[in-house]
Amino acid sequence: MNYLCADIGGTFIKFGLIDHSGNFLHRWKKQTPRSLEEFQALLLFEVQSYEASIKGIGISCPGRVDTKTGYIHTGGALEFLYDFQIKKWLSQYTSLPFSLINDGKAAALSEWWIGNLKDIENGAAIVLGTGIGGGLILDNHLYNGAHFQAGELSFMIQDHSATAPTQLLGYSSSSVRFIQNATTLLGVSQDDYHSVFANIEATPPQPLETLFEQYCSSIAQLIINLQAILDLEKVVIGGGISSQDSLIRMINQQYKKLRQQEPLLNQTMAPLQIDACAFRNSANLLGALYQLLLDMEA
Questions:
Q1: 101: buried, middle or exposed (CB in 10 Å: 19+, 13-18, 0-12)?
Q2: Alpha helix ranges (H) inside 193-282
Q3: pTM beyond 0.85, yes or no
Q4: What sections of the chain are H helices per DSSP?
Q5: CA-CA distance, 148 to 153, in Å (whole number)?
Q6: Reported confidence tier of residue 162, pLDDT bands at 50, 70, 90
Q7: What distance in Å separates the CA atoms of residue 221 and residue 157, rounded to the nearest whole number?
């Protein structure tokens, strides 16, 4: 039997018809609506189109969401989703099992299920984008926290001397902001991130090389801080930028450099693995599916 999954993003909602093992039978996307009424109409259309051939519905959503009750407290940049009882609303139209999960946690869950965190008891997924999302696998369980806010790495304070919001990690270590700064240095369009990494892979001009190293160092610092608190075995990096091998290499280099600069880190903390997520554009859909499967088994 198959399942309908949706990944709600700021620009598009990605949909997938997926089987029990995580194989995609069909995938498509629709532009994200700008009102709750339009969103409800779109989701209802997709559900009713596939209702006869699916066993359940799984949704990945930005912001703070209550997986147990299917309640969206905050929807990230999508303000129309704030305080939305999506499970209660959808139950008026279908009796199919329904599951809801935060997008960063969905990425971690998919990697732990069949990706690059498989068989890892303690690991994390860090998702680089406009902000920094994440998901934590602790003692073989996805960790939600007391208020379903675990993994919201954007809200970590990185620079106490800075003013809001620049002191927050989600601002200073935003991959979107890095690309904007890099394209400005190169004098190309801000959409042309391919030129940024083409230059990095070749012989980058010194200002770009410095900017790239600083950016990757900030991610390496985040990894070390998470490791110090949680004693992780492995971290995987997600988000569109994670498809660049040079990014993963440089984060690893900066991680090793930070350990070498502080002997206590080498003496006290075992080195962890840093890798890219196995599932890039599919991670949130697969995580939504696995959360649904777990809920249906409970």
A1: buried
A2: 193-201, 206-230, 245-261, 263-268
A3: yes
A4: 36-50, 86-90, 103-114, 169-172, 175-186, 193-201, 206-230, 245-261, 263-268, 283-297
A5: 13
A6: low
A7: 12
pLDDT at 76 over 90: no
Give the C-alpha separation, 194 to 187, whole Å.
Answer: 13
Task: Please give the single-letter amino acid code of residue 54.
Answer: I
**Short-list 38, 117, 123, 25, CA closest to 78:** 38
pLDDT in tens, 16-59: 999 999 999 999 999 999 999 999 999 999 999 999 999 999 99
At 167, the pLDDT band (50, 70, 90 cuts) reads: confident
Place of tokens 């984008």: 129
Alpha carbons 238 and 255: distance in angstroms, whole number: 17
Which single residue is written with the structure tokens 């410095």?
210
Q: Which secondary structure element, helix H or strand E, spans residue 295, and what is its range?
A: helix 283-297
Is the backbone peptide bond immediately before 165 cis, with ω within 30 degrees of 0? yes
DSSP character at residue 54: E
For the record, the structure tokens of 289 come out as 């599916």
> What is the spatial distance between Cα 115 and Cα 145, in angstroms, rounded to a whole number?
23
Given a contact cutoff of 8 angstroms between Cβ atoms, the answer to whether 212 and 204 are in contact is yes
Which tokens is 163 given? 């003013």
